[in-house]
Design brief:
alpha/beta, Rossmann fold, 2 domains, six-stranded mixed sheet, 15 helices, 16 strands, globular, binds adenosine-5'-diphosphate, binds magnesium ion
Length: 441
């Protein structure tokens, strides 16, 4: 596929300009879930921009708004300086899950976008085969998605996005469903095509939760906050390509991004000892107590005596930020550790926990769970107050859903169930989805 785009205005004008974007998902009668608030970003020609944020921070919502797949609650999205329908101005998207039609061959899946555009059949075929060739799917034209590996399926997704010759390629965590090696191969191939100018696109906006991936691929990284999602920082990556993960400058940048991702927006001093965002409506990540204990032990055993840089810890434990940060933040929430910039450090309680035997650990965990996780205290209070000492879990799930979407409410309940069990502060009965105080073990 050759670059045949006529570029009338080869200026530096933004290809995408997002201003004051806000998105609220409706929650029936209650207040909506504010997922994006005042998001501003621009994408200029000839750059790969990464949007780095945590799961649930609204990255997909933002990308869908730019692609014109959903209508934001407020704000504007301009694509190539023209407001309105993105599809008409050359934005196309690669999804995290491959989103292929299982009953269509590779060729048909790729060709689909062109049919929608009313391109004549012979040109359609030529462009489709060129895109398939470009993206390394040669020979797989007649295969069906189920016959392909994950990596090959994502190549189909890429070919399908490129065949329409968009000016902007939007990629939503395109490598996160792939195994480590396949993901790396695809990243490298994509970067090669980009650096050689062989892709018929002008810019890429890529969403990721993977810090190293962002540093590997992007010219500019926008750090995205959660609750609500907003661009809170920007880093230019000026390291030459191809970049090396072991390069000290690469590592320094990764470490810096860890710090930015854990930074809390400056907020008035926490009320009643609560962390920002704390309260019943706080979404919890289901991190097992074994994992929490393991991290406390890893920190205690670290050369820096209870402290470690998050970036170094991620490399040592071979964890991505998306895995590591929820563990670190759960420890911080429970005051077993504190995060200060790029460093995580055990608190005195964390050290006591590490030194304690099993029963003492459980007691300490119970104290901290009740003191610092409002939902745990809330459930315990309800159970204490009722003469039956039991309550359906659905009651708490419903309360949570005033603050967060269903999957997050469920994960929060899952977290509290496993922590509460370990701490023996209440029991949960799976068969009838009920909390109780009997035999909390
Ligand atoms: P990310 O891509 O960063 O993981 P998403 O944009 O998918 O985040 O989701 C952000 C938040 O919006 C999450 O809390 C998610 O549960 C919620 N959400 C996403 N899509 C919908 C929807 N269609 N209806 C209601 N809530 C949604
Ligand atoms: Mg997403």
């Amino acid at each position: 596929m050759t670059m045949t785009l006529e570029r009338a205005a080869q200026t530096d004008a933004p290809l995408v300009d997002v201003k004051g974007l806000r998105h609220v998902y409706g929650k029936g009668a209650g207040a909506g879930l504010v997922v994006l608030d005042d998001v501003n970003l621009t994408l200029r020609p000839n750059e790969i921009v990464g949007l780095l944020g945590r799961s649930g921070s609204g990255k997909s919502t933002l990308l869908r708004s730019i692609a014109g797949l959903i209508t934001p609650t407020a704000g504007t999205v301009m694509v190539s300086d023209m407001p309105g329908d993105a599809a008409a101005h050359g934005v196309s998207m690669v999804f995290q899950s491959f989103a292929l039609f299982p009953w269509l061959t590779v060729q048909k899946n790729v060709e689909l976008g062109l049919e929608a555009q009313g391109v004549p059949a012979d040109i359609r075929r030529k462009r489709t085969l060129a895109a398939i060739d470009l993206i390394g799917l040669d020979g797989f034209e007649n295969a069906y998605p189920k016959e392909l590996s994950g990596g090959m399926r994502q190549r189909v997704g890429l070919a399908r996005a490129l065949v329409v010759q968009p000016s902007v390629l939007l990629m939503d965590e395109p490598f996160s469903s792939l195994d480590v090696l396949t993901a790396e191969t695809l990243r490298t191939d994509l970067l090669d095509l980009w650096n050689e100018g062989r892709m018929p696109i002008r810019s890429i906006l890529m969403v990721t939760h993977n810090i190293e991936e962002a540093v590997l691929m992007c010219d500019r990284i926008l750090v995205f906050s959660s609750n609500p999602g907003r661009v809170i920082g920007e880093i230019k990556v000026e390291l030459p390509q191809p970049r090396k993960r072991l390069d000290p400058a690469f590592r320094a940048m990764v470490d810096d991004l860890y710090a930015r991702m854990t930074a809390r927006p400056s907020e008035p001093a926490a009320r009643e000892g609560a962390l920002p965002g704390a309260g019943l409506g706080m979404a919890l990540t289901h991190v097992s107590t074994n994992t929490l204990s393991g991290m406390i032990e890893a920190l205690a055993g670290s050369s820096d005596n209870g402290a470690a840089e998050l970036g170094a810890l991620g490399r040592e434990l071979q964890m991505e930020a998306n895995e590591l940060l929820p563990i670190a933040e759960t420890l911080q929430l429970m005051r077993f550790a504190e995060i200060d910039g790029r460093v995580i450090r055990l608190t005195a309680a964390g050290r006591r926990y590490e030194a304690a035997a099993i029963d003492a650990r459980k007691q300490l965990f119970a104290q901290h769970l009740l003191a610092y996780v409002p939902l745990a205290a809330h459930i315990r209070r309800v159970l204490d107050d009722r003469t039956s000492h039991q309550a359906p879990a659905s009651r708490f799930r419903d309360e949570l859903e005033d603050f967060m979407s269903e999957p997050y409410a469920q994960e929060t309940i899952d977290a509290i169930v496993s922590w509460g069990r370990y701490a023996e502060i209440f029991a949960y009965h799976e068969d009838d989805d009920r909390f109780s105080l009997d035999d909390p073990a």
